[in-house]
Amino acid sequence: MIPDESAAVRQPKFVLACVGDVMPAGSAQDALHRASGGSLSRSLWPGFEDADAVLMNFEAPITDASQVHRNKRYSFKCTQKVLEFFDRRFVWGLANNHIFDYGERGLLDTIEALDARRLPRAGAGRNLNEARRPAILEHEGIGVGVLCAADPRYQSATNTSAGTFPADPGLLRESIRELRRSAQFAVVSIHSGQEFLPVPSPRQRQLAELCLEEGTSVVIFHHAHCISGVQADKRGVVFWGTGNYVFPRGDTPKQYSAWQNSAVWRVTLNPLRRDVERIAIHPVILDRDGLPGEPSETRAQETLDRIALYSECLSRPGRLRWWRLREMMSPIYLWMNLVNYVDIARRNGVRACLRTLAEGMSAQLTAGPSDRLKQ
């Protein structure tokens, strides 16, 4: 019998595109309206034209609420107009430190707006049970479940209050096991790390290892506003820092260019082998309004080279501490953190500033397990 080569071509696959922080508020929302002509255009988003689904960390509530949750430097929100710029391929990850900027009202408005259009979401809810609920995606009979979680500092939901799904090891393990019983592939997206730092923390490494050991195929981190490396083994792939995808510069210093050099992180999932068949990285560059575009060939190669360098550093666990120390000693990192903490002290007092600093260090410096991931 002559093999039917067309059968291999027709073999179903699931292409998932992952992007980092999406914050189309203020000037970014206005720029989206101008770029799209007021309606959705697939050419608006480079890097995933043929993707079956796009997972993003949506970092602003969709609300008309006026009362901010806390007195802090940045509080973001969008109007429902922003919904017109995203099609049904997008999965809305809501587990982050800005989804509660306008309190419970802002979060509930966001949930109601997404549910009214039947758009898939995960990572936040009216209570912990809802916040833990995964988004279930299907394409050609392939089931992919997506869990979104955030550092427990970021307004965690409880059994009786709204908030985000906390990235607690016990809760994550339980949720992944439940998800694996109903979906062929599990994807976990976590909002964790240190802003402006490409080096994953011990806590991130602990969470990634837990997810892979429990059968997660793809683990994604965001929050640092800069790209990091990629690691993969026979269990799955980890994107350690997905950077920004829609994020205006604001008052970020011009010297810090890392916020605009980013990428779309793509995986092809093979249901027959039940693994990640292919990993692809599509560089993008953010313009002054924070919208992604195609970089020059030289700029794209620089981004890929940087990702390769970070991936190589991650494959040498013994050097992670030195890499972290070097990055933390950079003048731009020190300056931006100094500005942030001085602002916290000015708004809320020195004690609040010191408490925030201590909580951040504690959240990131938890000891992790042995480093089993290979480049």
How does this structure look, described?
- Mean pLDDT is 90; it is low at 367-375.
- Helices cover 31% and strands 22% of the residues.
- It has 10 helices and 16 strands.
- A hairpin with a 2-residue loop joins strand 6 and strand 7 (142-150).
- Helix 9 crosses helix 10.
- 43% of the residues are buried.
Please provide a brief summary of the model:
By secondary structure, the protein is an alpha/beta fold. The protein has ten helices and 16 strands. Mean pLDDT is 90; it is low at 367-375.
Q: Helix and strand succession? A: HEHEEHEEHEEEHEHEEEEEEEHHHH
Briefly note the structural class of the backbone: alpha/beta
Q: Segments where pLDDT lies below 50 for 5+ residues?
A: 367-375
Query: Major beta sheet, specifics?
Result: 8 strands, mixed
Radius of gyration: 20 Å
How much strand? 15-25%
Task: Report the end-to-end length measured between terminal Cα atoms.
Answer: 41 Å
Count helical runs.
10
